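User: Let's play a game. I give you a shape written as tokens, and you guess the letters that built it. Ready? Here's round one.
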């Protein structure tokens, strides 16, 4: 499990500083998404609009993007209970989720529940704060983001949202998902 801090700033900027299991940084500067693993001495850069990494749509927390930009519809989730009884679990039908993609298991009927990415948002009923985001793809891979200790409008310098490429680090233009798979340790 990865853990760290995340910062959001309007319009559409964010920074994720991971502390464990290894240090890495994910920055969306409004134009590009950057994924940097210091141990690899490379940084992956992709236009933010082309990134399929789920942290990028979370830019909706930072302003310009609206839930309608990533969800065709949003409704109470009948098939998933929230982790905390004081929260509400919502189902987000992702835009374009029913479109088949290259490499998708052709045995699944496009548009069926099994062939779609499933996205759930757990929200504090009284506060409206995002508690969790659960994303699972048609192949069964699931990602969970947990949020706690929200601080609204903290003073954060704008330079935090500008990625500075360290000396000796190669810039790779490409898709963040592939870069993260390469950076993730493989189980023995």
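Assistant: Ready! My guess for every position:
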């Amino acid at each position: 499990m990865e853990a760290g801090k995340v910062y959001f700033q309007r319009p559409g900027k964010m920074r994720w500083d991971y502390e464990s299991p290894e240090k890495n940084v994910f920055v969306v500067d409004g134009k590009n998404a950057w994924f940097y693993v210091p141990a690899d001495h490379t940084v992956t850069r992709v236009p933010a609009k082309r990134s399929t990494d789920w942290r990028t749509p979370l830019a909706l927390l930072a302003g310009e993007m609206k839930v309608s930009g990533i969800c065709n519809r949003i409704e109470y989730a009948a098939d998933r209970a929230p982790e905390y009884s004081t929260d509400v679990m919502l189902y987000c039908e992702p835009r374009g989720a029913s479109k088949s993609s290259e490499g998708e298991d052709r045995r699944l009927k496009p548009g069926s529940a099994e062939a779609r990415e499933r996205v759930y948002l757990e929200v504090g009923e009284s506060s409206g704060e995002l508690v969790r985001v659960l994303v699972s793809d048609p192949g069964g891979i699931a990602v969970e983001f947990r949020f706690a200790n929200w601080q609204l409008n903290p003073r954060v310098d704008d330079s935090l949202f500008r990625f500075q490429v360290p000396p000796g680090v190669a810039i790779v233009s490409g898709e963040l998902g592939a870069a993260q798979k390469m950076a993730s340790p493989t189980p023995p």
